[in-house]
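Researcher: I'd like a candidate sequence for this fold, 208 residues long. If you have to choose between options at a position, lean toward the conservative one.
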């Protein structure tokens, strides 16, 4: 059904022109021939013809205006369709980007992070030592445990380095003592070698 007011006016004008044309055709047919018709009948027919021509001209004008409006509507529709197509393309791009981000999020969530393999102390032991973290969320608690592990390892590393320095010092002291003992042995051997003539002389005196 036609609901547009402009198209309805065109249909009304077309219907009126058609009815007028049929009425004029019936009127002429009833007269038989215009040449033998009375002057009044001829004047009435001429009047109706002029009125029909006027209505037909009005109908053509309405039809032309309707066509122009149709072209304008088509242009507007084409512009709106291009806008809709552009928005649809943007929506598709956003959809693909959303799927990509969802895939990246899933990959991150399933990624085997190194921190998950750290030999951290159990949560209950950590909270017993650090009760101030009892109300922390999972992420904050994990960060605190990793930080605690870092401090513990740095402390142990510092102690290890101190023990290593002590070990190296003891090794150096032992080497020095060993070298001193070796030097003492050499001195003793020299002393014994130097004392051999005295020992021989002493043994001769005893035997004589």
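Model: Candidate sequence:
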């Amino acid at each position: 059904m036609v609901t547009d007011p402009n198209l309805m006016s065109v249909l009304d004008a077309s219907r009126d022109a058609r009815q007028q044309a049929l009425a004029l055709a019936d009127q002429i047919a009833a007269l038989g021939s215009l040449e033998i018709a009375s002057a009044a009948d001829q004047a009435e027919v001429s009047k109706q013809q002029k009125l029909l021509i006027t209505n037909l001209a009005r109908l053509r004008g309405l039809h032309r205006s309707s066509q122009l409006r149709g072209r304008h509507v088509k242009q507007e529709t084409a512009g709106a369709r291009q806008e809709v197509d552009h928005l649809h393309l943007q929506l598709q791009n956003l959809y693909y980007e959303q799927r990509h981000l969802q895939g990246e999020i899933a990959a991150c969530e399933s990624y085997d992070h190194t921190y998950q393999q750290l030999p951290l102390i159990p949560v209950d032991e950590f909270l017993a030592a650090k009760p101030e973290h009892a109300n922390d969320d999972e992420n904050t608690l994990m960060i605190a445990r990793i930080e605690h592990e870092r401090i513990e390892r740095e402390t142990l590393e510092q102690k290890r380095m101190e023990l290593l320095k002590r070990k190296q010092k003891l090794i150096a002291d032992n080497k020095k003592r060993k070298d001193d003992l070796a030097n003492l042995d050499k001195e003793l051997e020299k002393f014994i070698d130097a004392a051999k003539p005295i020992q021989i002389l002493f043994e001769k005196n005893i035997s004589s």
